[in-house]
Amino acid sequence: MKLCLIKEAQTLLTLSGVQEITSVFFGGGTPSLAHPDTIKMFMEDIKSRVSVQPTAEISMEINPTSLELEKLKDFQDAGINRVSIGIQTLDRYGLNLLGRDHSVEESLRCLEMAKCLFPSSVSVDLIYGWPGQTLSSWLSELQEMLHLCDYHISLYQLTLERGTDLFKQIHQGHLSPVEQQVSEDMYLQAVELLNNNGFERYEVSNFAKQKCYSHHNISYWTGQAYIGVGPGAHGRFKPVNKDHREARIQTLEPNDWMWEVEKFGHATRKIKQLNPQNQLEELLSVGLRTKKGVSSREWSNVEPASCMKDVLFDDPKVQLFVQKGLLKFNDRGLCASDEGMNVLDSLLPDLLNAVEKDYFRKRTAV
């Protein structure tokens, strides 16, 4: 696995023509189960091939189990300088319901140790909206976390995945899902609580104190290129000598992935050519989730021949969103207001439709 990760990274770096790396993120699944030497060798090889900024964010997702806790210092020595801890909940029943392997006590120990090793660079992930959770219990838990956490919190509404025990229990009627209105109240009151305690909502699900943002995520939200290495990884970049950016997905099954890397140098299973319409739709979908929104420069990097305001403001529904104060056009570009961020999912379809209509109109004119 270690050598295959390095080999695939080498191949994709060559294909992409990347000269400088600003961030590296070890995520997806449980990367902290890997041996720290794997991380160290991977980073050393990357640094031998391209420039890695001295201030580059090298982050990792970790689960707060005792086994992974023991390796935190070794991961730091291997080059990791930021961690995101999948605490999920401080409720014992909730952890069991969500199928997590760690205990509340392990979460607290891991968090304290991480704060010592990575000051101002520790994020915690929390899940809300699981069966049995109430608005009151959720806010109490979040209040407790405010006394424990570092400078970054990510909040995610529970997503039911087919095949999981939790999905089956709800589908069979053994558990009742949280009502949608309650789940919405959980989010909105969490936003208010975090804001009142100095946490800025800089993205729909992400909150930070003192601008301790996740820089890797910001690069993704602003439409920058990134390379996906490893089983099931996703990437977005424009290959050397190609006209369009590509969305690339690596083979998911680890054994198949290793076989393909050994044979072909990489295990890209699916490639989709992204035309300007695709790229603008992606940019709006992820960029408007952020407080800053989408800048005119980011838009023109994709489609220099069109003006974002002209394209979007041509749609009556988008005009209505602006009149209602849900969206704001300014000198920088387009962003959602606080209220708009709360209902962003209901705004995006009309924004994307405006892009599609403009793209179709131009193709028809040609």
UniProtKB/TrEMBL annotation:
<dbReference type="InterPro" id="IPR007197">
    <property type="entry name" value="rSAM"/>
</dbReference>
<feature type="domain" description="Radical SAM core">
    <location>
        <begin position="1"/>
        <end position="200"/>
    </location>
</feature>
<keyword id="KW-0411">Iron-sulfur</keyword>
<keyword id="KW-0408">Iron</keyword>
<dbReference type="InterPro" id="IPR034505">
    <property type="entry name" value="Coproporphyrinogen-III_oxidase"/>
</dbReference>
<dbReference type="GO" id="GO:0003824">
    <property type="term" value="F:catalytic activity"/>
</dbReference>
<dbReference type="Pfam" id="PF06969">
    <property type="entry name" value="HemN_C"/>
</dbReference>
<keyword id="KW-0479">Metal-binding</keyword>
<dbReference type="GO" id="GO:0006779">
    <property type="term" value="P:porphyrin-containing compound biosynthetic process"/>
</dbReference>
<dbReference type="GO" id="GO:0046872">
    <property type="term" value="F:metal ion binding"/>
</dbReference>
<protein>
    <recommendedName>
        <fullName>Radical SAM core domain-containing protein</fullName>
    </recommendedName>
</protein>
<dbReference type="Pfam" id="PF04055">
    <property type="entry name" value="Radical_SAM"/>
</dbReference>
<keyword id="KW-0949">S-adenosyl-L-methionine</keyword>
<dbReference type="InterPro" id="IPR006638">
    <property type="entry name" value="Elp3/MiaA/NifB-like_rSAM"/>
</dbReference>
<dbReference type="InterPro" id="IPR010723">
    <property type="entry name" value="HemN_C"/>
</dbReference>
<dbReference type="GO" id="GO:0051539">
    <property type="term" value="F:4 iron, 4 sulfur cluster binding"/>
</dbReference>
<dbReference type="GO" id="GO:0005739">
    <property type="term" value="C:mitochondrion"/>
</dbReference>
<dbReference type="InterPro" id="IPR013785">
    <property type="entry name" value="Aldolase_TIM"/>
</dbReference>
<dbReference type="InterPro" id="IPR058240">
    <property type="entry name" value="rSAM_sf"/>
</dbReference>
